[in-house]
Write a structure and sequence with these properties.
Length: about 260
């Protein structure tokens, strides 16, 4: 039995040791978001126990969600079959027999939460002074430049307003984003093009921190960053000296447990 609320660490109740000779799958609750698409991104929370000893093997509820691709090669046959046909928001239970490798010589009891890979908030009225954003079918953004001079101060505009947790300055975040040149609308950095969301400490990118703090998860936010603002030590030299327009989908934010 699996208990626990959406977004919280699950609790598994069963009598150990489990004897498992075939894979078992159960939908704890179905998702109501977009359907998972073969070859597309999938963002997962997981909790894995050794079914012989009922002990924890691995989890990422205390760290950051895991981005993967909806494919057998990336997920493995068992997890791919568990996720196939599911939607974002689902919580799933998977029980599989012992593997052939020494470190997998136990039945595995796994709970998986399927998280969103794009924002899904309520649309906010557009500020005509900001670039127009157009979304592709998969959620990837493009912009139409304004043709006007770039602002000299950081500008923030919510595009979709989510109802999740408010972002704090000390959070880790998981984002989909594209950075565009203000003047041309050219994409210069994009998680969409790389094929999966990115997770990092928000404090590592001070300019984005200023724009995203107190926004809510599941929101999409435009942050216009003049060149005088700090994009962090790891920013590409390609971005230096540019006014950039970030279109950011906030997929997750939260503190990370010490020692994770």
């Amino acid at each position: 039995m699996v208990t626990g609320d959406a977004g919280d660490t699950p609790t598994l109740t069963y009598v150990a040791p489990l004897v498992v000779d075939h894979a078992y799958r159960q939908t704890v609750w179905p998702g109501t978001g977009p359907a998972l698409v073969d070859g597309g991104p999938v963002l997962l929370r997981y909790w894995i126990e050794n079914g012989t000893t009922a002990s924890l093997v691995s989890e990422n509820y205390s760290t950051v969600p895991q981005p993967q691709t909806m494919s057998v090669s990336d997920l493995g046959t068992d997890l791919y079959q568990t996720l196939k046909g599911q939607r974002v928001g689902a919580r799933l239970l998977q029980v599989t027999p012992p593997g052939t490798e020494p470190d997998q010589a136990y039945p595995a009891v796994t709970v998986v939460d399927v998280m969103p890979t794009r924002a899904s908030g309520t649309a906010v009225a557009r500020n005509a002074a900001m670039p127009k954003v157009t979304l592709a079918a998969d959620g990837a953004p493009s912009i139409t430049p304004t043709g006007k001079a770039a602002p000299t101060q950081l500008q923030v505009q919510a595009l979709l307003r989510g109802v999740g947790r408010q972002v704090e300055a000390t959070d880790m975040v998981t984002l989909q984003y594209t950075a565009f040149r203000w003047d041309t609308g050219e994409s210069v950095d994009s998680t969409w093009e790389r094929g999966e969301p990115s997770s990092f400490a928000l404090s590592d990118v001070p300019a984005l921190s200023q724009g995203l703090v107190e926004q809510t998860t599941n929101s999409q936010v435009m942050v216009v960053v003049p060149p005088s603002y700090d994009l962090g030590a790891t920013a590409s030299q390609v971005l230096a000296g540019q006014t950039l327009v970030f279109v950011v989908d906030i997929l997750w934010s939260g503190p990370v447990s010490p020692g994770s």
